[in-house]
UniProtKB/TrEMBL annotation:
Single Gene Ontology BP annotation: defense response to virus
Matches recorded under NCBIfam families: viperin_w_prok
GO molecular function list: 4 iron, 4 sulfur cluster binding; catalytic activity; metal ion binding
Named cofactor requirement(s): [4Fe-4S] cluster
Protein name: S-adenosylmethionine-dependent nucleotide dehydratase
Keyword terms, alphabetized: 4Fe-4S, Antiviral defense, Iron, Iron-sulfur, Metal-binding, S-adenosyl-L-methionine
């Protein structure tokens, strides 16, 4: 087995300007004041330990044979951290890591894009719907009911590509009970991302927005004209297939449907080798998520 790149997701903060009902980026007992971004020295220690371990020989590298490592900044909404987020990205790049961002896009002003885009190997934007009412139902709006419109999404992608012509654009869409009948073909075709990941809502804490497998497949099938960029990720594809660090530097994994999560001690307190023994990570499942696209004949 061999993959090009290992991805480690650092959920830098639980704070977010949106309130998506299906969000799984919450951690029992997390205290926002204990999030590592409050101290640059803590962020420096976390990113440095991550780079030193995963860029060098280790059991996961022996298993997967990856050539590079990408630190993916996620949340919550990491852009809310402003200069703290930018400094962390620059640090990761200086240590030899590739970098990426998963964002709801709402706070990606042109000023922020100009500062961070040249240093992001990939920009991932969460976009579930082109309809404001549906976005409100899902929770993809802020307190003023502002949202990421299709027009603003196009502007962000254009600006990123202007600033970083070699950068990769990815759109993440979570199929849920509110949007599974919607068609996003027009919006996705306009921006034409390098990858469109279509995920089935994951019931980590609640199943209130879940869809059936038939509804999920229906959504994918209606977008088959974009099959060359679609990567489908059903619930079984997600379990034990992500390396994730929470805002306190703890590795975590989802336990099971509506069963919450398991966490390791912080990697600031123990070695990464020790921390990884507290979670279940399956390299084989991780590798399967990186196949290029979906075979519609299997649906």
């Amino acid at each position: 087995m061999s993959i090009q790149e290992l991805v480690i997701n650092f959920h830098m903060t639980e704070t977010c300007n949106f309130r998506c009902e299906y969000c799984y980026a919450t951690w029992d007992g997390n205290n926002s004041q204990q999030e590592l971004h409050h101290s640059y020295s803590n962020i420096k220690e976390l990113v440095t330990k991550t780079a030193n371990y995963f860029l060098n020989d280790n059991p996961i590298k022996q298993k997967l044979g990856y050539k590079s490592v990408r630190l993916n900044f996620a949340g919550g909404e990491p852009v809310m951290l402003g200069s703290r987020f930018i400094k962390a990205v620059l640090l990761a790049k200086s240590l030899g890591l590739n970098t990426s961002l998963i964002t709801n896009g709402h706070l990606l002003t042109n000023t922020m894009l100009s500062k961070v885009s040249p240093h992001l190997d990939m920009l991932g934007i969460s976009f579930d719907t082109a309809d404001h009412l549906l976005a409100d139902s899902i929770g993809r709006v802020d307190r003023k009911k502002d949202w990421l419109s299709p027009q603003r999404l196009e502007e962000i992608v254009f600006h990123y590509r202007q600033s970083n012509p070699c950068g990769i654009v990815k759109i993440n869409t979570v199929v849920n009970k509110y949007n599974w009948e919607e068609t996003l073909t027009a919006t996705i075709t306009k921006i034409m991302p390098d990858k469109w990941k279509i995920l089935r809502v994951l019931p980590v804490y609640s199943d209130s927005l879940c869809v059936t497998q038939q509804q999920y497949k229906h959504y994918i099938t209606k977008h088959q004209s974009l099959s060359n960029i679609i990567v489908a990720e059903d619930n079984d594809d997600m379990w034990q297939s992500y390396l994730m660090l929470n805002p306190e530097g703890k590795f975590y994994q989802n336990s099971g449907p509506c069963e919450g999560i398991k966490q390791s001690p912080s990697i600031l307190d123990v070695s990464i080798t020790d921390a990884l023994t507290h979670i279940e990570f399956n390299p084989d499942t991780f590798a399967k998520r990186y196949k290029s696209n979906i075979d519609f004949q299997e649906i």
